[in-house]
Specification:
Elements: H1 7-28, H2 41-90, H3 96-113, H4 122-144, H5 149-170, H6 181-204, H7 210-217, H8 219-232, H9 238-258
Helix pairs in contact: 1-2, 1-5, 1-6, 2-3, 2-4, 2-5, 2-7, 3-9, 5-6, 7-9, 8-9
């Protein structure tokens, strides 16, 4: 996609396509539940804030400072947010096992993306950090919303559009013409990946602690490296492999050592009328 779309423009177009696909399926299968506007007004307001800036911030940072530094900064903010917010709002204990996993994950991030650190620019760096923190806040909000994963996914994309649509037009952002088939094709591929990843993430985060979810999320970096090797014939340096091993070890600690039993978050199911 490159710079063919403005950050906010691509975000709301992508969200609109996702909703156009998921909403009819949710209505047809009758998994859509009544939204408790009064009960969930603060959670949905938070959803509007964080979902309006996650996609644009990450897209902006990636196109300015590259994937490496963006992921390093984003996941640092994400991991920190998951631990801090999980402790503050869910009462999760920052145990010795979690501290060890944090250290291993940090070492893995630096080893994997350390070669990119010399090209940092202040504002894209800040944008990536904000994206990571907001992803952590998004996951905590998902835990608190008592809807099924499909509906929570649709709400996440819809609330994000509340902020991205006006900002895209206020900033006069651009989109390629419909004749630019390659750019729109990549956007549709991006949509397909987003549907699968966001549903799986929002389903899983209702079943495990926020801290554990934060560490497991780092495996995206390992899979990204493997896809680069398989599909783009990339040849990472030895330190990158060592970094990936540290991240895998950090993700395994919750299950090898055992965090306390994950909380089960109630999902309200309604009988279709």
């Amino acid at each position: 996609m490159g710079n063919s779309f403005g950050p906010f423009m691509q975000s709301w177009i992508r969200a609109l396509i996702v909703i156009a696909i998921l909403l009819p399926i949710a209505l047809y299968t009758r998994v859509w539940q009544s939204i408790r506007w009064r009960r969930d007004k603060w959670l949905l307001s938070g959803f509007v804030l964080v979902n309006s800036f996650i996609g644009p911030s990450q897209y902006y940072a990636t196109t300015r400072i590259g994937i490496g530094l963006t992921l390093l900064t984003l996941y640092s903010g994400y991991l920190l947010a998951m631990f801090v917010l999980g402790w503050r709002f869910n009462g999760e204990r920052y145990s010795a096992d979690k501290r060890a996993a944090t250290v291993l994950a940090g070492v893995g991030l630096v080893l994997t993306f350390g070669s990119s650190l010399g090209h940092a620019a202040p504002f894209p760096f800040f944008a990536a950090l904000i994206a990571g923190i907001f992803i952590g806040a998004q996951m905590l909000t998902v835990q608190k919303l008592r809807y099924n994963a499909a509906q929570t996914n649709i709400l996440a994309w819809a609330t994000g559009m509340v902020g991205t649509v006006p900002l895209a037009f206020l900033l006069h952002e651009h989109a390629p013409s419909l004749q630019a088939r390659a750019q729109w094709g990549y956007l549709l591929a991006f949509v397909a990946v987003c549907i699968a990843s966001s549903w799986l993430c929002m389903h899983g985060v209702k079943l495990v602690e926020a801290g554990a979810a934060g560490i497991l999320g780092l495996l995206e970096i390992v899979w990204g490296m493997l896809f680069g090797i398989l599909f783009f014939h990339e040849r990472p340096a030895g330190l990158v492999y060592l970094g990936a091993a540290c991240i895998i070890a950090a993700a395994a600690i919750p299950y090898l050592k055992g965090f306390k039993k994950p909380k089960q978050y109630e999902v309200i199911e309604e009988v279709p009328v």
